[in-house]
Amino acid sequence: MSDSGNWCLIESDPGVFTGLIKGIGVSGIQVEEIYSIDKETLEDLKPVHGLIFLFKWQGHDPAAQSSNQAPIVYDESIFFAQQVIQNACATQAILSILMNSPAIDIGEELTNFKAFVSDFPAELKGHAISNSDVIRTVHNSFARSDPFVNDMHDPDAKEKEDLFHFIAYTPINGNLYELDGLQEGPRNHGPCPGESWLEKVGPIIQERMAQYAGGEIRFNLMAVVDDRTKVYKERLATYQAQLETLQKAEGPEAGSWLKGEIEHLEQGIKKEAEKTLKQQRENKLRKHNFVPLIYELLKGLAQQGELQGLVEEGRTRAKAELESAKQRKAAAVAAGKDVDMEDA
């Protein structure tokens, strides 16, 4: 796999993914992190266009050990790109859903890109993504600001870091597909009429998780859904119209359940506005370089003659904590207890 082009690592965060989607020109769509695949959770998020699953990469696909491994299907009507660039799997998982969901307006940029690569084989589609200035620039705009370590590639890293990989699940032409850029093609998990794919995908993801050794809990699941504020406002308008009609027929006291639903939706709209502002702020903080601020603070403390004292105080405190840890360890050993203390 090539590392040319320097694609940064993308944090598995719904605010980052939503910002990335908006950055490449797609509106009316957002990403929600989900902690359960139960019917009630997914019902509240409908319509769900696809799921993005993050798992620890072990140099092979654990799902390949499954006896129920879905077959790879080569279908020209499916947008599928092989991953040919390091760290691009997050964006490719997003594109796998956006490009294969007819209900999503992908905008002018992606529409033109999709038309341009429509006849390309999967590998060339991957190269086209890596060479897209727009997609790469938006992707890299979510790189964490770090003046000391290049998080795109650190050749001096002595310890091997865990690698994580994003894949996508989405319904296409009445079938549930698994789109993984490290595979040769899309995997067809079988028919799923309507929105039944949400019931079908749960056991598949759970089976993938079960392939890992016990103790591995670092998984993440996000849903690509319609803009929640838009959905809530549409429902609110419907309920308000129903309430008005009902009260005209039965009086102002009628429709208590509708009033409850309206209040619930109004609260939902307020929470979405607050969440959006929070995500925007967090995305700005991710990109901000705080080193100059830290430098000025240390410089100010030094000029006031306070820095040296704080440094000595820190050293004294660190020595005291280390000595305390050693004493606790010695006491535990003397008592014949097992010791597992990182600070010792």
Key features of this structure:
ubl conjugation pathway; alpha+beta; 344 residues; Ubiquitin C-terminal Hydrolase UCH-l3; 48% helix; disordered C terminus; Ubiquitin carboxyl-terminal hydrolase; globular
Could you please describe the fold and organization of this structure?
With 344 residues, this protein is of the alpha+beta class. The chain has three domains: 14-226, Ubiquitin C-terminal Hydrolase UCH-l3; 228-287; 302-334. 48% of the residues lie in helices and 12% in strands. The chain is built from eleven helices and six strands. The protein has a six-stranded antiparallel β-sheet, with helices on both faces. A hairpin with a 2-residue loop joins strand 3 (163-172) and strand 4 (175-179). Helix 1 packs across helix 9 and helix 8 packs antiparallel against helix 9 (256-287). The longest helix has 32 residues, at 256-287. The chain is globular, with a radius of gyration of 25 Å. The two termini are 41 Å apart. 25% of the residues are buried. The model is unreliable at 148-158 and 338-344 (pLDDT under 50). The active site is at 89 (nucleophile), 165 (proton donor). It comes from Podila minutissima.
